[in-house]
Protein 1
Amino acid sequence: MRIALFGNPNTGKSTVFNLLTGLRQKVGNFPGITVEKRTGTLPLDGDSPEILDVPGIYSIYPNSKEEEIVQQVIFGSEAEGLPDMGIVVVDSTNLERNLLLFTQLSDLKIPLILVVNMMDLASRKGIKIDIEGLQKRLPNTPVVSMNARVALGKDRLLDAVRTQREKRSTNEPFIPDFTVLKNHEIEAQGLEAKERFRLIKNLLHGIITASETTESSDRNRWDRWLTHPVAGYGIFALILLVIFQLVFLLASYPMDWIEHGFAILSQFVSTHLPSGVFNALLCQGVIPGISGVLVFIPQIAILFIMLSFLEESGYLARAVFLMDRLVRPFGLNGRSVVPLLSSLACAIPGVLATRGIANRKERFITLFVAPLMSCSARIPVFTLLISLVIPAKRIGGIFQLQGLVLFGLYALGILSALAVAWVLNLLMKNEARSYYLMEIPTLKPPVLRNIYLTVLEKIKVFIVEAGGIIVAISVLLWILASYGPTATKEKAQKQVKETEAYSRATPNEREQMENSVALENSYIGILGKTIEPVIEPLGYDWKIGIALITSFAAREVFVGSLSTIYAAQSDQEEHTKLMQRLKNEKKADGTPQFTLRAGVSLMVFYVYAMQCISTLAVVKKETQSWFWPIVQAIVFGVMAYLMAFLAFNVL
Amino acid sequence: MRLNELLVGEYGRIKAIHACEFSSRLNEFGVMEELSFEVTLSAPFNGPMAIHFNNTTLSIRREDAAAIEVEKVVPPPFENFQ
């Protein structure tokens, strides 16, 4: 049995879903379409019906990609058909508007349960709802009053599910012989809505009594500040600042634990398993690959805890309201703000979050520029390069130069995202007029359980979408780095053993030298040398070339690759050793390789380059074509090259 | 007059909504002829505005608000105002 959960946005629908299913949830895809589907099971008298959480909608007629999903759920894709039962969650403070969707679903002959939620809010606003009276007027739909935030009314809802499971009763049609309109019949949809509201007025006549309250002045006082021309932006900027401080501060500890833990695991496995190809594959390909996936989770989790806190509390809608005007000249929508903020953790959830943008052009521009927002994978690269080439001194006694450079790199990413968006806005045709209609929900304390479950879901999405690709590429790169044309490799190995340095070296150093030479003559080394002429104008040599190529698994692999190439160990204590080696690295003519120019050029390259195959894969899925990811890869690749060239030659 | 001409703190009643891409969406929000509302918020730099009615705050861009014909009314109580 399949039960679908319907409701307008901000009615507490997800709270009801989380209340019913708890951790028995999973996120998958609808068959045939690539949009995510939240389902869960409800244990009920030994039976476990499937509960489907449908994104919040105002009507069965879609206005965005997200709402099209709902339409497919209601009318049934070929595989699934109409749901067996629907639970419609409505906001008790706004019954009239919320019932529009209810009457539409009712006319589709889906057996329904009506959940009148947020009863506490209604009574605080002086609104009384005669639930029994409403039940009498809707004899075939169990009407349940709830306050889902505190789990009040859960038993009543379960009883209603039991009743409807047996009776499967539907209402008298509100509109006789109702036929579903086509998506383009906009005017008729408007007429239908008006007709339904007339019927709803009759239905609710005498059911709702409202008395005067002082709530509204209270509400306005907060909002006047949050959307104030000066204070509003100040508050928004402050919130972002706090978020990023916390992400940097809190995430570094668990990230260290993860990296350390896996380094130890890798060490353990390599010494306790019989040595050979399988051992090396496991310890140098698979385990570092998995570590490379998991290490992002702390930052993603912390950022999303805070973003969903802002969303749940209703603040984010105010930020969207404030930002709409500022981002519009760039072909973006106020709603683009949320995906772009998510992209600061990882572009993958960012790209997925664009589904809520109704206008196709604005949605595509948003997801196109999302990878330019500096994601967490770039942080280790930036940190290493900054400490390598930027002197640790203060400017004006207050600002740390290194911190300013990091800030500058983020700013460069954001400004470039806006610039690219602006160009796309000129190039792309608009198929439909862009508009912006958004409900601004009441400010309220967030439900912690909802935040926890949202964050869990984001992490799952990241692991599913990116995890496999990152691990697979790590393995592939390991193969390319471990094998090479046998003849040249053996010759080189022999040569290094004849050098004077080798004969003076300790066994440990000898091994490192051998590894270094092996890498130089592996397929990936050859690849690095092949691209050297191309990257030389940017100030890079073939070793950096290798690191650039390996970054396609995930950008932060850059650091690990450099340590392998420069034959340093990659664990934490040896980090300084790697720095020392990089500092001492000389070009053929004896000048240092990592000059200020070359370092900055590399950082600029990482700001732009589309070195994330997982993101490209997600963009392909979301746009349903190879066109967009290919254009993204080319455009950002060219920008990376040109800007890095500029940085190297101007400095 | 048009909705975008009203200022924050002023009240209005809708007389007509011109047919456009989002007119059905407005209707689905319950925004239709005879609705009384208050203008509660206005984003800076000629950004979106927000109207409040029936316990709902709805934000709309000013140029979109121009599609809504309204009349200015003196403050509540209105029948649909909460």
Protein 2
Amino acid sequence: MNRRQAATAMMALGATLALGTGVFALYIVRHDSAGSNVTQPAAAARDPHEVTNQVIAFFQARVERDPIDFVSYSKLGEAYVRQARETGDITAYQRAQTAFDRALALFPDDRSAQAGRASVRFSLHDFTGALALARDVYAADPGATSALATIGDADLAIGNYDEARTAYGRLADAAPGASVLSREAHLDELGGNIDRAVELMKQTEALSAASPVSTEALAFYRLQLGNLYFNSGRYDDAEHWLRKALDGFPDYYPALAGLGNVSAARGDYRQAIDYYERSVAIVPLPVVLAALGDTYARIGDDRAAQKQYATVEFIGKLAEINKVLYNRELAIFYADHRMNTSTAVELATAELDRRKDVYGYDTLAWALYRDGRPRDAAPYARQALALGTRDAKMLFHAGLIDQANGDGARARDELEQALDLNPHFSVQLEQEARTVLAQIDSNASVEGER
Amino acid sequence: MKRLILVVVPLVAWALLAMTANASDHIDSPSVTGDRAADLSDVYVFRSPEHSDNVVLALDVNGLTSAAEPHNFAAGVEYKINVDTNADLVADATVKVTFSGDLRTFKVEGLGAPITGEVTPPGSAQARVTEANGIKVFAGPRSEPFFQDVALFGWLAAPYVLPAIGFRRAGDPPADFSGFGPVSSIVIELPITALTKAANSNTGTIKVWFSTSRGGSQIDRMAIPDNMNFLMPPEQKDAFNRGEPANDAANFRAIARARIEHWRAGVDAVLGPQHGGPLGDLTPEKVAAALVPDVLTIDFSKPVQFPNGRRLQDDESDIELGVLLNRGGAAGMSDADDGSGNKPLLTSFPYLAPPDTSPSVSAAPNTGTGGPTRGDSNGRLWLVLAGSLAGVALLGSGFVLRRTSD
């Protein structure tokens, strides 16, 4: 090869190399960011726990880097609250509290941290404390809608229904959307207007499914709708929404428990046990443990039933915080199973002292009745039904109490309502309702024959 | 300006009971989210770096997020840019941006025929730009452009000793708003004369403010950065967010003046009294009159930079501090954050930097899988460019060799 040929070869090679690498360089630049081929991440496809853990890790890293970053402390608190909602882990609330306290120590006027602190108090059942804190925030800043929500929620929990309605009304004006609709639906349910509650929850669910809310929030709204259907005896609809609640959140333990209720209502006890077991494996809530025990009892496995009952008591007394959270459930559990009835009355009395809501009255009424004091129970049963709540268990309790006090007609009416509303409201107690109803009818017919 | 007191996310209790179809004895509903996507975190108005006859209007929402989750605009919210051309504080033109229910498309109205285009989805760094009738529009995620030492808010309430420069105690590490997740930005570029109705792009004055509303009800508004945080006490913030420039002087000017006096007194107590700063006799009254009503005034016959408009790179924190406190020069106050920690801005539309999508920040499972990461691609790029250079060198040498071999 002579110089000229070599030169041409060099030029050819050089041109190819330059052109080729130039094109390749362009390719790299165009696809430089890994995001160029990213499609919109589907929120439902990601494990909600993973997302929340990442949010926590992000803000944790920020506060470690900068100990005076109160903005990040506040957001860390919010992330812990979210974790608590998703996992049922109470200690996450306590971590949230610490984070909010740190934010406020650095910047006392941080509204988000103040409102967050109020909401954590609420979660840990310090309703009066939560109310006081939330009122302070709202008074200082009428735009603090999250504090307004806590005011409504705390008022509702304590039984201040008018105040709760007012707060939610203001909230609906200030921050219309799914979370306020959900609250209004709950108020409707308390007032006995189940159909309207269902309508509102359908709207809520549709709104949330279409717009970005957290996976847990969407699951919650579906759960709320599913439970409304169950409480009014519509088991197929209940199942549909409870299953949807598990979409993208397969270990959403309240939905698993709800499906247990549906299965039991259909007489599919083994399936119910399976759902309940899965639910308590995630979070051993006393009310689910009790339902699990009752279902074991129903199929004749008394040993397994007793094991669950023992766990209910164990958890109920486990820690100071548990006593605050679960006293009402424990009282109901004792009353349902006719055990420790005087303790049940004590617990229910203390609870009513703290919270004069309709369920507080109902719990004491039921405990007194089971303790052999139907006359004492009567006024509390009346109070429980004062809002017109259509709740099969409350109606059942009132029916038994009225029957024991000799008011057969009213008792019959209440028991019928209960069974019409939700024929399988309790694996353990529905039979008792039917038996007493039958007794009333046979007494009536005997009297009629006279 | 950072919306510090966001009505964001504080969650309402989840009771660990009552989720079963039982006595649902207290409310467990999820948080009131406070409409983060309608909460303006920053707004900008600046002459286009690419085309000097154009102006760029930009607004950001979804500030202060963690980047672990994608955020987006919200359907049902109207994002508005209000333009007053005759200085009566009433909008003469309103640009309105709305989003489809699935958040995939936007619509811009108020600039002639409506313009529709694709939203750049959350998690995507590749900007989708819509061009129509000489107007460019972008809506999607961008790297947070704001910069300010977080402590600047803290000093307003916390008992820091104020050094002459910067707001931290000696030894405190600085921290600013970089590192937060991407904001959701709407960026619109259009001819200046389309807004001013003037003869050319170097004349005419407009006043601009941004707002968001839902169902006709205003949720938030913003123009001069940090106005709400610096000038409004906590109990006024909500009213301010729902306010309008035409009423600002009557509603808020006296409050703003009192607030400025409050800050100056606080700083004087620490640094000693200040007399006649670099801005002359800038009394609290004059400052309040300049900052209220809350509008960005842009006089196109002068350089467009804060406070005459606002560019992405303007250090509004330092400028505001100087104005608020009238302490400049040797005793100049600064939050010591000049934005160098932020991602570099782009020289072309949409100017705001693309969001960081590296795996350590974004957790979306489809980043970093398949495509190169930023670090990898930079390395490869250098290698490839070296190859290109070698190729060119070879070509050149070959050429010379050929010439000389004749």
